[in-house]
Amino acid sequence: MKRTDLEKHQGKKIVGEMKREPTSKRYGASAGAHVDKRDRREREKAAGLVPFAVKLPQDLVASLQALAKERGVPMNELAESLLRKGLAE
């Protein structure tokens, strides 16, 4: 083989290796974030928390956000307290 053919072959080999390896490895994306998420989910599960998605009107969400900011509590705590109060009635 000519030297140029060897260089082309080597280049194709490198490109093929780059396509096979995961992007998180190549670009240094932290694998620690995935572990942190898993740990957080396990802690929440141990605390008895369950994810619960709800679709609400935008004006109601804005009011909830303002109330949470006013009280200085996270939205999760505010929603929990309001739901418990509402269900108790």
Features:
single chain, 89 residues, 2 domains, 0% strand
Q: How many strands, what sense, and barrel or not for the largest sheet?
A: none
Low-confidence stretches: none
Classify the fold: give the CATH topology of the largest domain.
Answer: Arc Repressor Mutant
Note the gap between the termini.
Answer: 85 Å
Written as H for each helix and E for each strand, in order along the chain, the element string is HHHHH
Instruction: Give me the secondary-structure category.
Output: mainly alpha
Blueprint (SSEs and pairs):
Blueprint (H helix, E strand, L loop, with lengths): L2 H18 L2 H4 L5 H15 L11 H14 L3 H14 L1
Descriptive report:
With 89 residues, this protein is mainly alpha-helical. The longest helix has 18 residues, at 3-20. It is built from 5 helices and no strands. It starts with a helix and ends with a helix. The chain has 2 domains: 1-30; 50-89, Arc Repressor Mutant (Orthogonal Bundle), CATH 1.10.1220.
In short:
With 89 residues, the chain is mostly helical. Helix content is 73%, strand content 0%.
